Amino acid sequence: MAGVLGARDQAERDRLFELSLDMLCVAGFDGYFKQVNPAWSRTLGWSEAELLAFSWKDLVHPDDRRASREAGKALFAGMPSVCFENRHRCKDGSYRWLSWNAYPVVADQTIFAVVRDITAQKLTEQHRIELETRLRESQRLEALGTLAGGIAHDFNNILATVLGNTTLAMEGIAPDHPAMERLRHINKAGLRAGDLVRQILAFSKNFSPELSRHSLKRIVESAVSAMRPDLPAGIALELLLCEEHVHVMADPQHLHQVVVNLCSNAVQSMQGLPGKVEVGVERLDIDAAAERPAGLPAGEYARVWVADSGCGMDESLLGRIFEPFFTTRAVGQGVGLGLSAVHGVVSSHGGAVSADSTPGLGSTFHVYLPLADSMPHAEQAPHASDAARSEVQHVLYVDDDETVMILMDALLKRAGYRVTCHSDPHAAVSAVRREPQSFDLIITDFNMPALTGLGLAADVARIRADLPVVIHSGHISDSVRTEAARLGVRGVVNKGGSFDELGAVVQRILASQ
Ligand SMILES: Nc1ncnc2c1ncn2[C@@H]1O[C@H](COP(=O)(O)OP(=O)(O)O)[C@@H](O)[C@H]1O
Ligand SMILES: [Mg+2]
């Protein structure tokens, strides 16, 4: 630091130069440093000699060069003081944000600058912007979910009427009646519509699955195995599981669907060409200080990723993919509900989903779920069903005919009950075995090939004798009545009658409990 200073002043200045926490420098108009203080090496990791050998272009981030050049031009032109920001490359390859306050001495073709590392501030700011964007995004998705969920709910009731009446009409005519074929078509279309409604409800606001502890690796593995048989030729599907245990609080069926939806998209992204899909599971520590993916709170997470070498997506597409009914596929190839369901399911598990993509190169979807081990009290937490129980009574409806099941589901819900349906009587018995106290009443069809309604009543009685069972059947013979009475079945109701009849029996039994 030359000039007209005495030796003592000079030494004091040098000492300040050495001690400064901010980076101080003298640089030439040629873009090379003449002097740097030790703060530079501390911040960027380069030695003083290395720094002096670099031109500014070797260090400044390519995206910041234009702005830095503009600042330089202003200084060369004699602007007394110029403030600007740019990123500098560190020795370890990372970049740090620097804030410059520079002034020139044009006659000497020299710039003096005080430079501060503002990386931490920048990260905080970036984090805040990301959080805000995500919040807006999730509010928008929530609003759409509420809307779609509301429509789906009404739609379910309409569908129940269509399907219920079709079933009754089919029962009322001879099998060779000319209308039979058309009724079957109506029935099939109605069932497909029911499927769609179920998917819509999966991401609607009120969706809250019952979670229990499961191995995520096993769920992902089974979903990937389910994908394999239908994999088009030329597409390699690779599974990468970490060594450690990965347990999450999950609804396995829904998570299975998440993986299947992501894999189907990945396969579709190949557009008929050969390619590779990689599915992986790993454990991940999200540190409060470091960059937090998807704006998640710090903690221990599981990450599932699905990466493809497909067509990729541009920014504007990426911004819309989680919206319900957003699709770029041809009619009949997709309805745009896959990723909305993924978003809904993952959110209901306390996790988050994000995607990154490069057009032409491929995409990667990341699903983050909190590890079950990091939630020590989760298993003792009151079960969702306990809370619901105190408010509404829980009816289990069992019928192997899905049409009737959908109809009864809608009618019982309309009557104010919480309803769980099973088309497989054995699955229904398992549900009771898992949580005997969760149900208040069972209604079962009689004529089911896997297990009759009476068989089911007997099984249930062995698990919980005081759980009332009602048989709902199209054909009630005297022997059924006798056997039902012997097993302690509380009611036998004819399916052909109106719902009011069944409703009255259910209400009477529940009132007497
Ligand atoms: N892996 C992927 N690669 C490229 N585009 C994708 C990928 N996953 C999803 N997309 C885009 O997101 C859209 C929405 O996906 P999704 O919600 O699953 O509905 P659908 O598959 O029925 O279109 C797709 O139409 C597609 O444009
Ligand atoms: Mg899809």
Write the CATH fold name of the largest domain: Heat Shock Protein 90
Structural domain tally = 4
- What is the CATH C level class of the largest domain, in words? Alpha Beta
Radius of gyration: 33 Å
Uncertain segments are 375-390
Bound molecules: adenosine-5'-diphosphate, magnesium ion
> How would you describe the shape?
elongated
For the largest beta-sheet, the strand count, sense and barrel status come to: 5 strands, antiparallel
The total count of strands amounts to: 17
Domain PAS: 9-79
InterPro entries: CheY-like_superfamily, HATPase_C_sf, HATPase_dom, His_kinase_dom, HisK_dim/P_dom, HisK_dim/P_sf, PAC, PAS
EC number: 2.7.13.3
Modified residues (4-aspartylphosphate): 445
Using brief descriptors, characterize the structure shown:
single chain; 513 residues; alpha/beta; Beta-Lactamase; Heat Shock Protein 90; 4 domains; five-stranded antiparallel beta sheet; five-stranded mixed beta sheet; 17 helices; binds adenosine-5'-diphosphate; binds magnesium ion; HisK_dim/P_dom; HisK_dim/P_sf
